[in-house]
């Protein structure tokens, strides 16, 4: 364990990383650029903690914990507020994945609230009359992009098992904020006034336009009485308020409008069921890493972590360009396999055991080199089916939250409406998702082999959402981390794990590290955070990160220190905070 047990619980500047990180002998050391100024969002506590993307949501979660609620209770309250104050990222009309650590049993359970394709969906639903895939924006804004939402059903299912507070008490903060108004944050204002096509759709324009005809700006107070009423119904009736009755009918009506109508029916909504299973846990170093099961892509992060065990990245550090090159190469291998094989296991064979087999991992690790050349090919793990090339596009919306309650239970949850404001259509004061555009638009390869993530009725699209929970060598909770970011989620989460467990950083330092995303022939990174010297060194090694690139992760995490203190971190790139009781 490398410096993980440092007695320091403070988060020094990235300028000090050269002193903190163990660097291999004769390794090149290049200081990173200073972290852009932002109030330190790290927090420590011996009790409970919440880390989420908006301070109002964090306060809602803490209120539930103070009132004796559980981590899952707090997650319900946080989601309800985020749906209002961060609607560009998640909401009642979207889906989510949760991994939950039960302190009494030591078990980690995975809850799958991923949206699913309606029974009327078909493999060619995103193909045009000319036989070619529809333009992405055309598909995104259509009714066909909306899948049957799953976040509310999943949260209700988990809360029934692990909640301590009455369901109808968990929406107070969100309802009050919706009825009385909340202050528009700078990030939301940027989305309201940005160039995303969803922000220009009729529902969004109506909601985000003030009586004087101008758009809401940061600092303005925005009310949403329709959402307040939805929350009242949800509190009183339970999840059925969303899946049956007037709200369900409104969802059906809204997705059937337009030139490319969707096919969601009342039956699709009424019969939606979240999945529950033991989390996918695998050994790594002296730990156990737990993630949701496919169609989540969490297994890819485990594969990458295990591959990096075959390198000397742990003897290097964040000031070493070789370490970053190794990270990039591991990502490229990780994505090559993930993109080829991961899909809904009810419809395709996902070779989980083969992908995580130690011999296969060791073989794939040989592709991790100190310079980057041609993209690595996908591998052939045991049990792999014949599947075609995947052409999935996955925008970078989404949000992540972590809750640790005083009893030691922990939630790590990634939740989304997919793209910015979903598909721009609203019902009951919340946005509908565009999750079905997470399928591969082209269902088959030229040779007829189906893509693992091809569209089918009742199928759930592959997701990059990958909330993590790490257990120590005794099987006790050690850390939780996760991020939004579309396809880049895997890279963001992997970077944080490397920072924590290979480079010995604290949680705030790990989430604040520059991001580096390497997938196929494409490289992208936080150019300003790396700084000119590191950029030059990376480019010389074939990792082509260019000036002006930006990777806006939204990492949140919590880790337990040896004295039992919880240490949290929140990504400085966004507006989130980590705060303890």
Number of helices: 19
How much is the average pLDDT?
92
Structural class computed from helices and strand pairing: alpha+beta
**Straight-line distance between termini:** 28 Å
Radius of gyration: 22 Å
The counted number of beta strands is: 20
**Helix share of residues?**
25-40%
Summarize the helices and strands and which ones pair or pack:
Blueprint: H1 17-20, E1 43-45, E2 49-52, H2 55-66, H3 71-85, E3 95-101, E4 108-113, H4 136-141, H5 151-162, H6 172-180, E5 182-183, H7 186-192, H8 202-207, E6 221-222, H9 225-237, H10 240-243, H11 245-255, H12 266-270, E7 275-278, E8 280-284, E9 287-291, H13 298-308, H14 321-341, H15 352-355, H16 358-365, E10 399-404, E11 410-416, E12 426-427, E13 430-431, E14 468-471, E15 477-482, H17 489-501, H18 507-512, E16 516-519, E17 522-525, H19 527-540, E18 556-560, E19 566-570, E20 577-580
Antiparallel strand pairs: 1-19, 2-10, 2-20, 3-4, 3-11, 4-7, 5-6, 8-9, 9-14, 10-11, 12-13, 14-15, 15-18, 16-17, 18-19
Helix pairs in contact: 2-3, 3-5, 3-6, 6-9, 13-14, 13-16, 13-17
Could you describe the 3D structure shown?
This protein has 19 helices and 20 strands. Helix 3 packs parallel to helix 6. A 7-stranded antiparallel beta sheet has the order 1-19-18-15-14-9-8. The chain is α+β, with helices and mostly antiparallel strands. It has helices spanning 17-20, 55-66, 71-85, 136-141, 151-162, 172-180, 186-192, 202-207, 225-237, 240-243, 245-255, 266-270, 298-308, 321-341, 352-355, 358-365, 489-501, 507-512, 527-540; strands spanning 43-45, 49-52, 95-101, 108-113, 182-183, 221-222, 275-278, 280-284, 287-291, 399-404, 410-416, 426-427, 430-431, 468-471, 477-482, 516-519, 522-525, 556-560, 566-570, 577-580.
